[in-house]
Structure formats: C-alpha cells, structure tokens
Write a structure and sequence with these properties.
Oligomer: homodimer
Distance between the termini of chain A: 48 Å
Order of helices and strands of chain A: EEEEEEEEEH
Strand order of the largest sheet of chain A: 2-3-8-7-4-9
Largest sheet of chain A: 6 strands, antiparallel, barrel
Shape of chain A: globular
Radius of gyration of chain A: 17 Å
Chain lengths: 172, 172
C-alpha cells in the first residue's frame, strides 16, 4: 500500500427528516420502506446545486450514519443469523459510517426535497445527492452471497443498533 | 436546520488500483467501462471485514475523489453540453467528493480484490465496500432527467477534470 492520507474531512450539506426516531423498527432498506416519506433539508449554501434535480425520478442519498454503533469488522446483519465481514453486509457499524439509499424523489420545493422509501433515521446528516441512473446503477444479479440462503425475513431493524445518540439524555 | 456537525472525519481503508492515471479518458461510469479491470488493496487492519464478500457477484466501492477539481454548485457533465446543479449530475466536482461505483467482483485473494468495470482513477482512496443487492439497489426508471434528451455520447471523461493531483510535479 502507498501511504494513505490520514484523515479525510466531510461537511454536511443538509439534514434528512423522517418519522424514524430510533434505530429499532426503522426500515432496513428503501425497498422495505415503501410509502415511508421523508424530507431532505438542504443547507442554503448548497441550494444552487439542486438545479434540474426535480426531473429525476429517483436519487441517491449519501449520508453519515450518525447513530451507528462503534465500527466492527464482523457483524450479524438484520437479514441473517450468522456473522459476516462488515463489507459483506449493509450493517451500519462500518469503519467509515457512510450510508447510501436510492429513494424516490417526489418534489423539490426550494431547499426541501420530498422523498419516499426512506430507511433513514431522523436528523441524519446528508453528505451528497446523486441522480439515480438505471444504466449506471441497476444490475440484476444472479448471486447475492449469503442473502440467497438466509431464512430471516424482516423489513425493519431490531435492537442491535439501538445505541444512544451523542446528544440524547441518559434517562427519558 | 438544526445545527450540523462542523466536520466529519473519514479514514481510508485501502487503495484502488487501475490503469487510469489521468482523469481525461477515464471511463465515466462502470457501465461504460466494461472489461476495465482493477484491484482493490485493503489495509491489513480491515482484512477481517472481507469475510464472505467473495460470494457476491457485484459490490459497491465508495471512494474519495482525490483528483476532483474544486467543488462547484453548477457543472456541465460529461454527458451533456448544458449546465446542471451538481447534485443532478455525477460530476466529481462535488462539495463532498465521494464517488460510488457498482463493479463486478471477480475474486478475493487475501487483502486484494480483483474487480471489473472500473471507472476509477489509479490510487483512489477507498472508504467503504458494500454488497450490491438487486432488491435494494436496482430500479428501472422511466425518467432520467436531463440525460433523457442529451445528445452527447461518450464513454470517457475529457479534460475538464484534468487538474493536477496534490503530489504531482508541475512539469512532466
């Protein structure tokens, strides 16, 4: 390996608002969150970057998993009972807690996007938005690793990521 | 908006190796990079996180666009002649220079992944790997915004992002 830069810095460009206040029972993926609506509030400094976004049907939200538990390298994902390498799962307990979700874009009104299919916790810092383009992003895979043989059926997260947020009171 | 955290910090988990040394003529997307192979070298500290990854056919690489030009809010993307908001494009000149590419996973050999369909510059710092799961990630959209009416046809980037890297000599 060449020398890697020690730290890279990101700055939130907005905040994602949803009805999911706790990790437990939050949908685990947009495809399991049909009908769940949310709002994306963009910081005014970045408003010009939204030009022409409204004509896309679906967008990627790239965000900071601000309520993720500490990173680990092996995890039991929501859709299995066995442990896998963290990079073979979509678990939030990642070395770099970045989440990606392809959500349906309903409207753009000034600095507010209305979106549907959110599997995202309320208050999540937004890092980037990209248009979803089927040619770039859509692939029908024959094999999906351990998911192919998992018997676990669930649409929502359970308690395993229900860690307290940094600004959450100890007792409530 | 609530108060956003000022800065978030990431640490590279590895490096992406490809044959593309300069932004110009690098494929603009994996779908335009068929056959282009690359290697992902994982930092030994994160090796355990690769367990069971090899059984996935396709993976997301999340990476730092280390050669991106300075961020701007409006950009003319490679596939158009008109300016759009940066969040309505996949242009690298983003406020947070994060790239996502769904690439084909050919093999996992220790800390090295062989991948195909890379649209990524050599030496790119890797931030995360996620399994590509069609149920989560694949959508056939009816509308793809300005792309639907763009007449620009190209598979590779041009000079507009050919800025010098930080450690590149001025004259060569």
């Amino acid at each position: 390996l060449e020398t890697l830069p020690e730290w890279l810095r990101l700055r939130p460009i907005g905040t994602i608002r949803t009805s999911f206040r706790e990790p437990a029972r939050t949908p685990i993926q947009p495809s399991r969150a049909t009908g769940a609506k949310g709002q994306v509030q963009i910081d005014p400094a970045y408003g010009d970057g939204l030009k022409d976004l409204a004509v896309f049907e679906r967008i990627w939200l790239i965000y900071w998993l601000h309520r993720a538990p500490p990173a680990k390298l092996l995890a039991v994902p929501f859709l299995d009972v066995l442990e896998h390498g963290i990079f073979a799962t979509r678990s939030p307990a990642r070395p770099n807690p970045i989440g990606i979700s392809a959500v349906r874009l309903l409207s753009v009104d000034g600095l507010t996007l209305q979106v549907e299919g959110v599997d995202i916790l309320d208050g999540t810092p937004l890092l980037d938005i990209k248009p979803y383009v089927s040619e770039f992003d859509s692939s029908l895979m024959q094999r999906a690793g351990w998911l192919d043989r998992s018997a676990v059926v669930t649409d929502v997260a359970d308690d395993r990521v229900a860690v307290k947020g940094p600004d959450e009171p100890e007792a409530e």
